[in-house]
Write a structure and sequence with these properties.
Radius of gyration: 23 Å
Shape: flat
Largest sheet: 2 strands, parallel
Order of helices and strands: HHEHHEHHHHH
Distance between the termini: 46 Å
Number of helices: 9
Strand order of the largest sheet: 1-2
Strand content: under 5%
Oligomer: single chain
Structural class: mainly alpha
Number of strands: 2
Length: 245
């Protein structure tokens, strides 16, 4: 009876220790996030100019007293999350890594690095190619009788949602590799149901983009390519594991 109580006491102490460590790491993440948000707000003017430079010949307006301030704040919060993401991911990794074996640690660590690279590539691709193409397409519908008066808040929301959508979508190959690596999804299942995944991709593209065929196509085509790249990388990783075994 005494041993059982002692064992339960040790388990409770371990649980309390984990919760204390989790709270400490969450506080660190919150502090770094707030600092990153304030830093981004300090450079808001530079961020605004970089966003405006995508369409340099367009004049923007704001139609509410607090609209421009809220746009700056929205951009600062998103920028703060992006900048503090490496530190937050490191804290998450430090918390969960003791429960993983050596091979799992190696694969997850590589996935984090490669996933960050793919996220940045997706944002750059969207910033340089997708957003200017979409803006040019929409501006092609102007006529002399209707003058364009674009709200900066709506434009900023459009640009940020497009950039983040492409950044997240470019994580697809890494997600597929992890799912197949840990046998959550079989490679043959991905191959045999390719046509259904294509349908899902176009549905997701329709939800993530404005309701026009150009935006949906510009997102769906990279997703299809990334899906095929994910299958190829999954096959390479699986073949390597089979050889090692």
């Amino acid at each position: 009876m005494i041993k059982k109580k002692h064992k339960n006491s040790e388990q409770n102490l371990t649980l309390v220790g984990h919760l204390t460590e989790l709270r400490k790491r969450l506080i660190y993440c919150l502090i770094v996030l707030l600092v990153a948000v304030f830093v981004c707000f300090d450079f808001s003017d530079d961020f605004v100019r970089s966003v405006i430079n995508i369409v340099p010949d367009t004049n923007f307006i704001y139609i509410a007293p607090a609209e421009l301030f809220m746009s700056y704040l929205k951009m600062s919060i998103i920028g703060g999350f992006v900048i503090s993401a490496p530190f937050i991911l490191y804290q998450i990794w430090s918390f969960v890594s003791p429960a993983l074996d050596l091979k799992e640690k190696r694969y997850l660590k590589a996935s984090l690095y490669i996933g960050a690279a793919f996220f940045i590539i997706g944002i750059i691709f969207s910033y340089l190619i997708v957003v200017p193409t979409m803006i040019s397409f929409f501006q092609g519908f102007q006529i002399d009788e209707i003058e364009a008066a674009i709200s900066f808040e709506n434009y900023l929301t459009f640009v940020l949602s497009t950039l983040l959508s492409f950044g997240v979508i470019f994580e697809l190959p890494i997600l597929m590799v992890l799912l197949t690596k840990f046998n959550i999804v079989k490679i043959n299942f991905l191959k045999q149901n390719r046509r259904y995944f294509i349908l899902v991709i176009f549905i997701v593209a329709a939800f993530l983009t404005p309701p026009d065929i150009i935006s949906q196509t510009l997102l769906a085509i990279p997703m299809l390519l990334l899906f095929e790249i994910g299958i190829l990388l999954s096959m390479l990783v699986k073949n390597k594991d089979n050889k090692n075994e």
